[in-house]
């Protein structure tokens, strides 16, 4: 992991493909000055990273980023994280770690099954690669994406972006067999779902040893029921909202807010669950629109005869509309330019953060259909609460640090009050 083997080859492959399209699109009747990138999930993350790369910036003119996050720190990995893994990998395979050329040679002779088993446990993400720069390698991603956007050193382009109503909910296995529920079971599941963000501290000397609990306290305060939690349906809905808003909706809202300062942005939430029974037979009845289910309409799957399903007329009609909206944006940066029927999809702005609810009505959302407070909680308050809670964990019980602890607690209380009354 250096200039000889820096990583980010996936992004470089994408860039090479983009360059090929730029060079050859005319031969297929396309316009090299009107190229739209489209990505889903990790592909949406890639789009944001290409917005920060000087070479990639010249290769596209607009983007459709679906169900993906590219401005948060969680969208990338730091070299320090990978160094620990590579050190461990070298030891487990009995490889020489340095120089990298020797390490690579050793990996080439390792058993394929062993490498696949190790790789399957890893979370693969783009990597900050500034430290690998040398005479032959220039970094693809030298800073976190947000840094580029904050100093206007990025290619902000017209953007169509959004998420589904129940993003990520199928990954929470605890929701499948919900019987007895309570605030304790809710807190326990919140803790499990957030454990990767909360380091464990066993320092009995520290006056802040339990401060990571404040993170869960804040989440419980925001998402917990007003009174008693009794019904499994309410429990599922709370967790579904939490997962979708934390991992997808808030970051999408943040991205839209940032880019809309300079370019038109159209944001949506996809609430349209397929009505063809055989399509949804494998997902729980309570799940509305999980991750990936919007692609059914984007790709016109109801018209795919070879998959052998008898799609109903409503699914075909919705697919017609979605394909029209998406293709209109790709052509003109305006999704409603030539829509099948009149749809008022207002651009997203900071003063009027409009979000289209994609269902049978295709209407703009409002405070009754969208939880704007959740976007504010995850984008503004939660990072501060988390920072204070985890910094407190490193404070010893001296007089000066007790004062710091009190300021931490004060900030925590003020933040919760602000969330509640904002």
TrEMBL record:
<dbReference type="InterPro" id="IPR051093">
    <property type="entry name" value="Neuroligin/BSAL"/>
</dbReference>
<dbReference type="InterPro" id="IPR002018">
    <property type="entry name" value="CarbesteraseB"/>
</dbReference>
<feature type="domain" description="Carboxylesterase type B">
    <location>
        <begin position="2"/>
        <end position="366"/>
    </location>
</feature>
<keyword id="KW-0325">Glycoprotein</keyword>
<comment type="similarity">
    <text>Belongs to the type-B carboxylesterase/lipase family.</text>
</comment>
<dbReference type="InterPro" id="IPR029058">
    <property type="entry name" value="AB_hydrolase_fold"/>
</dbReference>
<protein>
    <recommendedName>
        <fullName>Carboxylesterase type B domain-containing protein</fullName>
    </recommendedName>
</protein>
<dbReference type="Pfam" id="PF00135">
    <property type="entry name" value="COesterase"/>
</dbReference>
């Amino acid at each position: 992991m250096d200039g000889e083997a820096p990583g980010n080859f996936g992004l470089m492959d994408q860039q090479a493909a983009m360059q090929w399209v730029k060079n050859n699109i005319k031969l297929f009747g396309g316009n090299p000055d009107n190229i739209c990138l489209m990505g889903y999930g990790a592909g949406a993350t890639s789009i944001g990273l290409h917005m920060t790369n000087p070479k990639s910036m010249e290769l596209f003119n607009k983007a459709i980023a679906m169900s993906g996050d590219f401005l948060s720190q969680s969208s990338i990995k730091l070299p320090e994280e990978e160094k620990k893994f590579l050190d461990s990998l070298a030891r487990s395979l009995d490889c020489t770690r340095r120089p990298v050329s020797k390490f690579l040679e050793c990996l080439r002779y390792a058993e394929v099954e062993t490498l696949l088993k190790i790789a399957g446990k890893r979370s693969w993400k783009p990597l900050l690669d500034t430290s690998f720069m040398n005479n032959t390698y220039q970094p693809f991603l030298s800073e976190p994406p947000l840094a580029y956007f904050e100093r206007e050193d990025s290619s902000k382009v017209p953007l169509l972006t959004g998420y589904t109503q129940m993003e990520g909910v199928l990954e929470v296995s605890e929701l499948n067999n919900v019987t007895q529920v309570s605030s304790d079971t809710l807190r326990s599941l919140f803790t499990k779902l957030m454990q990767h963000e909360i380091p464990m501290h066993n320092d009995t000397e520290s006056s802040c040893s339990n401060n990571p609990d404040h993170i869960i306290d804040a989440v419980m305060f925001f998402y917990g029921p007003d009174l008693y939690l009794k019904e499994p349906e309410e429990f599922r809905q709370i967790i579904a909202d939490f997962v979708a808003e934390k991992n997808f909706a808030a970051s999408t809202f943040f991205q839209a807010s940032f880019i809309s300062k300079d370019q038109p942005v159209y944001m949506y939430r996809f609430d349209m669950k397929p009505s063809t029974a055989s399509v949804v037979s494998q997902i729980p009845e309570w799940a509305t629109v999980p991750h990936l289910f919007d692609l059914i309409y984007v790709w016109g799957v109801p018209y795919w005869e070879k998959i052998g399903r008898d799609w109903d007329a409503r699914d075909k009609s919705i697919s017609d509309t979605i394909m029209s909206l998406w293709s209109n944006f790709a052509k003109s940066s305006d999704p409603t330019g030539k829509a099948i029927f009149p749809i008022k999809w207002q651009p997203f702005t900071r003063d009027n953060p409009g979000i289209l609810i994609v269902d049978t009505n295709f209407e703009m959302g409002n405070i009754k259909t969208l939880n704007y407070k959740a976007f504010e909680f995850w984008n503004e308050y939660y990072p501060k609460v988390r920072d204070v809670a985890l910094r407190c964990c490193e404070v010893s019980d001296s007089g000066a640090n007790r004062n710091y602890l009190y300021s931490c607690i004060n900030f925590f209380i003020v933040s919760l009050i602000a969330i509640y009354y904002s």
